[in-house]
Amino acid sequence: MIITRSSKLNAMSSTTQSNAGPSTVKTEAPQSPNIPTKTKKTSVKIEVPSRTKVTTKKTSEASGSTRKKVIKREPANKKIKTEAGASVVQRKKSVAVKKEKTLKVPKEKKARVTKKKTAYTLPPEAEIYLDQSMRGRVVRSMKQRMFVISREADAGDNSIEKFQVLGSVGNNYTVTMGPSVKCTCMDFCIRRVHCKHILMVLLKVYRLPIDNLMFRTLSPNRELRLQSRSYGRTVDPSVLIPENVRQKILSIGFQNHPDAKPTEPENTTTRRSLDTSDCPICFEEFEQDAIATIDFCKTCGNNVHNECFKMWASTKGSYVTCVYCRQKWVVDKPAASGSRKNSVRQLDSSHVNERYYANFAEELGISRKRDYSMYQRQY
Fold first, then answer.
1. Which residues are CB-contacts of 224 (< 8 A; sequence separation ≥ 6)?
2. What pTM, to 2 d.p., does this model score?
3. Among residues 86, 103, 138, 286, which is most buried (max CB within 10 A)?
């Protein structure tokens, strides 16, 4: 008897059913082609440069429909398909062309010429003879730029001298070396001590040492003054200014100074004939016989009686003008009998500083702003 494989399998199945008892058998229904099936998403990641974009592809196993989603920003990109069916957007690789470096020839640096600041240190005896405030003023008088534009001796007593000093901001001060040493600056007027302008004359003009008696008194006797003048024969060149600048300053700030540059009045004209007009103040005709009593304007040339013009000038104060053209009245200067310093009212605003002092910073080429950095140090 031959037992086949199929009969053997049927016998095994019948024995299992008899042992387990009645049971339900699950059968799978065949899939209809109309029922849609779920789609499977397959994503493939490929290591590409940082600028490439990866897109996914959806496939339907039953219907065979495909839906692609491609993100494409630049038209120059390429699509690359992988084995799994994913499409990859890859950017063109930019080929960097290396430029040959050109060797720069270093420029030769010019040597800078730095001006050395004048360093001044007090001698050891300064701590013995001078107090702390006095030492500070001595250092300022030596370091700051100050000038002497005039030096005159008194006609009655040759031991008395007057110095016209230009301070560190260009202000004009008068320093007197006489029985009482004094200066017209505000520091001396308030404190009544040696100011930096007096100390500048003692140190740079007289060239005196620190232990001299002139640093400890403001009332020197005649012998001490003469001895101080003969101590130093040469003046420090740092206090001198060019001659043309000095003449210009003296012509602006002084009257009848022998060293001043002679200036001619501007817009000078000749006198008009007497019969062209009458006196503008008294309205009387001019007479040729009385021409000595008739003055005329140096700008417009119109005539006016001397007596009439004096009454006109008395009402104008310090700034006297012509009756006709209203320009400043130019007075014929008499022969120089002695120099006199012009007042601040006689100067224009560009030559006045701090309300009370004539200033010539523009002619000297320095600043009007004060430097207070040296006032805070202790010496």
1. 213, 214
2. 0.55
3. 138
